[in-house]
Specification:
8 helices; five-stranded parallel sheet; four-stranded antiparallel sheet; 9 strands; 45% helix; Arc Repressor Mutant, subunit A
Length: 202
């Protein structure tokens, strides 16, 4: 079991049960809340390392909850909502959220986003050395080998490889990879990603 604690705040009991199962299977401790008030209480008592917040809560809008949490906590906040509106997403990100995932969601994508957010916050312990078949990646030394021969990579190529090996076994979208390696402004720059993926394969 990981030492990371994830706070989940959603008023839908089915979503709460699903998130509890998904996150526990991924190795996280899960704190459950169905209202903003409960979420604030649990956050104050248990000091979670990341929060997953729904927007349509019975006692307060989720964006307001993000603002309250952000007043005293630097933990990553991931909004999980059925509202797929660009203005709402931008508002949430401007007012405290670090990421925004729309429902329905894929378990693999959700766990990948949680891991990425924790890693950016310095909470997800990266493996110093990862082996996958003939590939060996030393994350601490920024070095990689294939069949015991060192592969010379640019900083960007290594950053992309790092994301891929840390999320091995999970399905990552082009947008996720672009955002993680290049930032949100490159989220739609698929040709950039294809070029670097081709370089890694070579």
């Amino acid at each position: 079991m990981s030492e990371e604690r994830i706070l989940v705040c959603d008023d839908d009991p089915q979503i709460r049960r699903a998130l509890d199962l998904i996150l526990r299977e991924a190795g996280y401790e899960v704190l459950i809340a169905s209202t903003a008030e409960q979420a604030l209480d649990r956050a104050a008592l248990a000091a979670p390392h990341l929060a997953i917040v729904d927007l349509l809560l019975p006692d307060q809008h989720g964006i307001e909850l993000c603002e309250h949490l952000r007043e005293w906590s630097e933990m990553p906040i991931l909004v999980l909502s059925a509202i797929d509106d660009e203005r709402t997403k931008i508002d949430a990100l401007h007012r405290g959220a670090d990421d925004y995932v729309t429902k329905p969601f894929g378990p693999g994508e959700l766990v990948a986003r949680v891991r990425a957010a924790l890693r950016r916050a310095g909470r997800d312990p990266a493996e110093p050395r990862v082996e996958a078949g003939a590939l060996v990646v030393d994350l601490a030394r920024h070095a990689a080998w294939v069949n015991d021969e060192e592969v010379h990579l640019t900083p960007t190529e290594f950053a992309l490889l790092r994301v891929l090996v840390l999320n091995r076994g999970l399905l990552l979208t082009h947008r996720q990879l672009l955002t993680e390696v290049w930032g949100h402004e490159y989220a739609d720059a698929a040709p950039v990603l294809r070029t670097h993926i081709a370089n890694l394969r070579n």
